[in-house]
Amino acid sequence: MIRSERAADGAYRTVTLDRPEARNALTPDALDALEAAVVDADEPVVLLRGAGSAFCAGADLDVVADLDDPAAFAGHGQRVAESIATSDSVVVAGVDGAARGGGVELALACDLRVATPDATFAETGVAFGLFGAWGGTARLPRVVGEGAALDIALSARVVDAEEARELGLVSRVVPDPTDVAREVAENEPSALAAVKRLVRTGARGGETEAAERETFARLHAEHFGE
Asked: Which CDD domains match (predicted)?
């Protein structure tokens, strides 16, 4: 269900949700495999994609219907999303086709989100009497603002690629997300990791000025010191 492949030149790794017959819906086992594939990656950049016509339909609804411990399942998804957000690699979500529910939440956990013109996004949980509980209620307003987040989460409406770009849900609309992964991977890995860590800390209200100074000095010594 999860494929992990290193680019021929070793610049980045592609992690693919590979269950196209179910629109790449995620089971607990698939969540664990996804977490391992991202966290264990040695490459400075990871591109997260979906096989077939969808990025990810979110949680497998057959699994959701039979949950004995819904809170544990929500916590499982939250842990995987946080592992993606805090991984050493820069993680690029390359959304091509539909991202729904948990698929949107996985994309939100990534450092960069880019979409093809065929990408669409929707938080459809309210249509089933649920909501996105893999960190979406926290990450979505941080990314698009409270008003837009409530609009998306309460309406269950479909957002196309261009609107997603206008809202800041994705940074670019591109023909091939691989190009973005390769562009990022052309940069110095230690600087990529430092920027990711500092921006993530600042976005959560952490103090970054001192850490920024110290990290800049460390990188300068590594690359320009005698």
From this structure: crotonase-like
